[in-house]
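Predicting structure from sequence has reshaped protein science. With that in mind, we have picked out one protein's residues alongside their backbone shape tokens:
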Amino acid sequence: MSKDKIKGGLGKGLDVLFGGNDSESRNTSPENITEMNPVHSDENILFIELGKINSNPYQPRKEFDDSELKDLAASIKQKGVIQAITVRKLENGNFELISGERRLRASKLAGIEKIPAYIIDVSTKEDLLEIALIENIQRSDLNAIEVAEAYKRLIDECSLKQDDVAFKVGKSRSAVTNTLRLLTLPDEIKHSIKKGEISEGHARTILALDTDVERLLLWKRITQESLSVRKTEELAKKKKSKAGGREKKIYEITDQNKAAIKFLEEKFMEHFGTRVRLSPSSPTTGSIVIEYYTAEDLERIIDLCKK
């Protein structure tokens, strides 16, 4: 997707989602729409019949809590929909949802006939996907795995690089990379994150272990014993220390050296935008492990090494 394209229709769409203006929405006035007073002088919100709105095929959020939807439906019955959803107009006169899946579902539960909506001009699949994903990520409406899956879809389906994703969602490149790493966890652990059984902090600690078997064993302890993130970190550290016992007999790392190693690792991570581990085997020798998670990631690291 070219930068010019992003500055065109997509840029206007993002403006509407995150507080900008959408002058083009004023040009749409089918019979099933009722115009209401705009929040700002140059911005219209329109009421659209729920039956005229199709679901978003690119909705990144897959799971919706039934009790939360019922609570939102009850609120909508009393106060109405406070924040407008965002849609695009289809050729058949209907509309396709871009953002606001929970509000739309709750409105149907509440039994209301029309919902306030912004209408923006989005024509391509890539633009629709990008807006839907970024909107959900920006609103912190997804769990950690859904965010990671959204990042991956932006990379795979919108031809974006990790740097582009980081810029669009307002995160550092290393934060995007670390979130993508969650997708390498076993399916059981990813599902547990989606269900809210363990936190993202737990998941990142589990990732520090080297094998899926070790990760699953630690995950089971977390869920069975309701371990805190701090306790999980202690267990993971002990596990790795035990696994590296032989190396420690050859070369004992002092507390002062540990501080220096951590400092260097952080500098390497800032430079490469990914996880880097230093493993000294003697005062003058050791290994540096630079992690990568996609072919594009590896090419980027190689280019940085050449500079």
In short: The chain has a mean pLDDT of 79.
